[in-house]
């Protein structure tokens, strides 16, 4: 919400926004009259409700941006390159369809493996044969190391080539829908040949392995995490994003075998710029950062799919472990007082301190 403050003969509209580092900042816009201030306040609130906590442009500037976007969308360029089209694709399709993590991952893939190698291809000259050759050539392209990771020396793997192909196929589908390509022609990526992805059987712990691991664990918090993962089939982000209001472990629920957890969010680390670009879509809470120039932020976010929202019933032993751990956590909170940052997280330790 924005507010209006009178300053001598002028009026200021005050609102908050998040900068590129995800830090909360205050902005003052000065207007000559109260009427202008009210109009500006209404526009600020409308804009931030639609686009998130960003700096709000002037109404005239916003109108020009809309007109320019419409002109760009309406004018299809026969000589447009794949690189130029992917910028349009990301800004129109990616910002509306992708989560912050997905946005960051796909943009990285485009910048590392698509634009440097085939970005200068003319969009209307892309063929199934050219794409098939490109996918085969990727097998000899060194992998780009992830941020703060050392190079592995490996080349691009077939599974990653499949992800690259998925981006290109989706982009070309949109190019046909937006009439950058002939709407009567087939997507050239739809029949492209990809390297075979080897099937890898996922290793799953047996009950005996789990029991042995529990016996070896001397950390109560780790033990709880292992129980939630094994007996409740919860992913790591779901476990670390679990909050106490979604854990039903009162005496009656445990006695009637109705103890349960409601899974409706997950803890994740996302790129700050991607989060800003997507206007904090799917973000429930942004945790304070310990480093002022950190490019990522720890957040609570909604799950990727609707089916991930679910209720899982707890075995009695796990429910009782959670009851005891909640008591221990409350005692620690009372002991530390204001020094304890309480964010109601079940899994709270180390630098997070129940944020």
Automatic annotation (TrEMBL):
<dbReference type="InterPro" id="IPR011010">
    <property type="entry name" value="DNA_brk_join_enz"/>
</dbReference>
<protein>
    <recommendedName>
        <fullName>Integrase SAM-like N-terminal domain-containing protein</fullName>
    </recommendedName>
</protein>
<dbReference type="InterPro" id="IPR050090">
    <property type="entry name" value="Tyrosine_recombinase_XerCD"/>
</dbReference>
<comment type="similarity">
    <text>Belongs to the 'phage' integrase family.</text>
</comment>
<dbReference type="GO" id="GO:0003677">
    <property type="term" value="F:DNA binding"/>
</dbReference>
<keyword id="KW-0238">DNA-binding</keyword>
<dbReference type="Pfam" id="PF14659">
    <property type="entry name" value="Phage_int_SAM_3"/>
</dbReference>
<dbReference type="GO" id="GO:0015074">
    <property type="term" value="P:DNA integration"/>
</dbReference>
<feature type="domain" description="Integrase SAM-like N-terminal">
    <location>
        <begin position="81"/>
        <end position="139"/>
    </location>
</feature>
<dbReference type="InterPro" id="IPR013762">
    <property type="entry name" value="Integrase-like_cat_sf"/>
</dbReference>
<dbReference type="GO" id="GO:0006310">
    <property type="term" value="P:DNA recombination"/>
</dbReference>
<dbReference type="InterPro" id="IPR004107">
    <property type="entry name" value="Integrase_SAM-like_N"/>
</dbReference>
<keyword id="KW-0233">DNA recombination</keyword>
<dbReference type="InterPro" id="IPR010998">
    <property type="entry name" value="Integrase_recombinase_N"/>
</dbReference>
């Amino acid at each position: 919400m924005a507010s209006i403050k009178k300053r001598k003969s002028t009026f200021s509209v005050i609102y908050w926004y998040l900068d590129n580092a995800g830090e909360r900042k205050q902005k003052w816009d000065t207007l000559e009259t109260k009427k202008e201030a009210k109009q500006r306040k209404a526009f600020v609130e409308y804009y931030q409700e639609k686009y998130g906590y960003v700096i709000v442009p002037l109404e005239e500037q916003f109108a020009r941006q809309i007109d320019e976007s419409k002109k760009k969308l309406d004018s299809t360029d026969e000589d447009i390159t794949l690189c130029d089209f992917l910028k349009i694709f990301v800004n129109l399709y990616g910002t509306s369809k992708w989560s912050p993590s997905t946005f960051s991952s796909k943009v990285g893939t485009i910048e590392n493996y698509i634009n440097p190698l085939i970005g200068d291809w003319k969009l209307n000259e892309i063929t199934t044969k050219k794409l098939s050759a490109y996918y085969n050539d990727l097998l000899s392209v060194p992998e780009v190391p992830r941020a703060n990771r050392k190079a592995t020396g490996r080349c691009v793997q077939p599974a990653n080539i499949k992800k690259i192909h998925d981006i290109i196929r989706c982009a070309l589908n949109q190019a046909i829908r937006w009439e950058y390509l002939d709407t009567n022609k087939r997507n050239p990526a739809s029949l492209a040949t990809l390297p075979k992805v080897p099937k890898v059987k996922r290793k799953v712990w047996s009950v005996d392995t789990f029991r042995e691991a529990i016996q070896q664990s001397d950390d109560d918090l780790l033990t709880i995490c292992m129980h939630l993962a094994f007996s409740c089939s919860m992913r790591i982000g779901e476990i670390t994003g679990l909050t106490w209001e979604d854990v039903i472990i009162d005496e009656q629920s445990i006695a009637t075998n109705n103890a349960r957890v409601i899974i409706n969010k997950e803890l994740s680390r996302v790129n700050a710029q991607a989060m800003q670009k997507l206007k904090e879509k799917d973000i429930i809470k942004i945790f304070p950062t310990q480093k002022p120039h950190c490019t990522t932020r720890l957040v609570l976010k909604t799950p990727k799919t609707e089916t991930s929202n679910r209720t899982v019933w707890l075995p009695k032993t796990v429910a009782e472990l959670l009851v005891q751990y909640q008591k221990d956590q409350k005692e620690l909170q009372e002991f530390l007082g204001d020094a304890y940052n309480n964010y109601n997280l079940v899994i709270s330790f180390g630098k997070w301190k129940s944020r």
